[in-house]
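Case study B.
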Amino acid sequence: MKTEELINILAQSEPKKPIMTLGILATCLIAVCGLLTKLWLGLRPELDAMTITMSFCFKTLILSSLVLVSLHALKTSSVPLGKFTLKHFAVFLAVFLCASLVYEWMTTPVAQIANLFLLPNFKSCLVYVTLYGSFVSIPIFFMIKNSAPLHYERTAGLIGLSSACISALGYSIHCPIDSPTFIVVAYGLPQLTLYIVSRLTFPHFLRW
Amino acid sequence: MNNELEEKLADLIIKTRAGDSLAYRQLLEACLPMIRQSTKFHLLRYGQQAFAEDLTQEALLAIHEKLHTYDDKYAFIPWLRAVIRHKVIDFLRKYRIKMVSLDEENGIVLEDASSKQDATAALDLDVLLKRLKPPADDIIYMLKVEGISVAELARKFKLSESNIKIIVHRGLAKLSRLVMEERLQTP
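Model:
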């Protein structure tokens, strides 16, 4: 086929458009994860009693910020010449999290922090965040497949990471533990796992 | 020139996104010369210029499918170049083309080298070869112009045969790039 003929054919239809934006999809997925958690596992005691504590706000703030940063990184990585503009916010978030960890380790006995990991919540955090994240990564993958990523491995890894961040936020309404160390370990491990697994599995399927 | 084109393309993209099919056709037609030139330029470095038109069509299809990923806060031409480069890399990866083929490259460089008239008329081979690091210039001259074999060159320069081949491949790739750049700069 001649190139001019191809232009004639292409010009007969409009260029492709995505069905929805990544932001809308992520919002829907967070809502689905939250709803599943409420129906399946139940809300944490304070939320059930309709009270909101500072520690819950802290955890939600950290997890929401992670969702925001990872989604923005994914969005910029999935388009040609995308620019990551949340560098300062990401650095601030990291510093804030480190400061919270230092404060906790200075004010709370180590045994008390270590005991948190012996609770059944730790295991369920690992399992549910990974499980939710695996399902969440599927619609995100199909959305990104319609995009135009130039760096397949990085984008694939970010699909896993943002899926895990979304699922962590959805699951967090069940988990009553708000310790910064617990957040970093119990939510960080599934995020790292999904990042690595996605980075190893998705790149081949992202080709365009 | 580029600014004018950029403004024209930006205007066409706005109209295309508003559903104007005529503007979309104009956009594709305006992109076509740039895509053709770019694909030819990239593929020439690998001696695969025969595939330039196929790749041009691939790039047009990519524009059709991925135009929604273009952010109109930024310039369109860099986006287009990134898409073309990606398509070229994908093509090279798909066909496992890693290095310039000697036979293909002969067509580009030795056409100028074997005929002295062509060489003086277009690009002077000696001047071009001097732009390579020694001993690549001597090796390429001896291999391609004097017809000395790779084995003899390996003995003469006290290098392994594979090293000679690598030097020739890299040297020819650089030469073809230089030739292409000169051609593009010539009006």
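The first helix of chain A runs from residue 3 to 11. The remaining cases will be described in the next quarterly update.
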